[in-house]
Amino acid sequence: MKEFSWPVRVYYEDTDAGGVVYYANYLKFFERARTEMLRSYGFEQDRLLVEEKVIFVVRSIHVDYLKPARFNEQINVSARIIENKKTSFIFEQSITREQEQLCNGTIRIACVDANSMKPKPIPVAILEQLT
Questions:
Q1: What domain range is 105 assigned to?
Q2: Contact 108, 33 (CB under 8 A)
Q3: Residue 4 in contact with residue 130, Cβ under 8 Å?
Q4: In the chain, where do the E strands start and end?
Q5: What pTM, to 2 d.p., does this model score?
């Protein structure tokens, strides 16, 4: 399926005292790439909340940390959907520095009703664009 790529500069706030990206911040980079992917197809999450009454939540995540990213480096975060179901997507994501793999993740994102927080079908327009 379609792959999205988003360049990121590592800021001081992303790192620990040693200048290495703090492990939880890789999850933030993944989140931002998924958000930017939706945005690149014309889907703003605040509008989805108001118009479709849906939000996307992380259901599960598996991350492999391979090599550290460091302060002021330019990294690239990719996202692609490897599986879609009626109410969820599975994303395969990676963070690279040039061609070097730094971090890989598999993230299941569920679509839920904004009020009840129960699973809700992914809007058809999103499925048509992303898969």
A1: 3-130
A2: no
A3: no
A4: 3-9, 54-65, 74-84, 88-97, 100-113
A5: 0.94
Distance of CA 127 to the CA centre of its chain: 16
Residue with tokens 């009020």: 115
- Could you say which of 14, 16, 46, 113 is catalytic? 16
Nearest-5° Cα angle at 110, 105 to 111: 140
Q: Which tens digits make up the pLDDT trace of 40-64?
A: 999 999 999 999 999 999 999 999 9
Give the whole-angstrom CA distance, residue 114 versus residue 70.
37
Q: Record the tokens describing residue 13, joined without a space.
A: 């706030």
CATH number of domain containing 17: 3.10.129.10
Per the structure, the count of domains in the chain is 1
- pLDDT of 90 > 70? The answer is yes
Q: How many helices (H) and strands (E) does the chain have?
A: 3, 5
The residue written with tokens 């179901």 in the block is 85
46 is annotated as an active-site residue? no
